[in-house]
Amino acid sequence: MSTPPPALPPLPATLAANPVLSAWLDFTRPGVVTIGTGKVEYGQGVWTALCQIAAEELDVGLARVQIAPVSTATSPDEGITSGSRSIEESGSALRQACAQARFAFLGTAADLLGIDASALAVADGEITDGGTGTGLSYWSLSGRGLLDRTAGERRPPKAPARWSVAGRSAPRIDLPDNGRASPTLRQIAKLRRSGTE
Q: In this predicted structure, what is the pLDDT of residue 105?
């Protein structure tokens, strides 16, 4: 009797709970990857880390990645934001969503080009064949509804030995806003000073 292949691990919990890939990723703005998360930024650097995870897994420059505003109407429901659990929960879900998106984009590109997907790679969002451009990219293929699907079988993410963005220092994307009060915070401070809060 042959031994059955080992069972794949389950999807990360928050991806399983929010399985539609388009809730996590959007490529409608040319040259920009917008990621969705249910985790808010309150100074712990989680948004910077999530951008690094997406940039790494999708093979795009970190400067191309932005975070969509967190909203109960559109963001993945990831429960609470709680310190290091944000990376454990949202980071693992986002990494797998990106791995699945990359697989979908490369599969579609391979079909259009009439070649095997294993021959293709991604360089800063552009799909290449042996280092040569194909004229296809995440953005040129995004109108095909490739992310309007639920997460399927787990896809292997990039091995840490191949990381060039994740796990390295990067400029914090939250610090410019944390360094100056928003209009709402200024209004609250003014009310407190006047004693009318």
A: 98
